[in-house]
Amino acid sequence: MHPEPREFYYRIPWRVNLGQPGTHRARLPGGSGEIQGLTTLLRAADHRRIDIRASSRDPFGELWFRTFRQRTVTP
Question: Residue 38's domain spans which residues?
Answer without folding.
Answer: 22-74
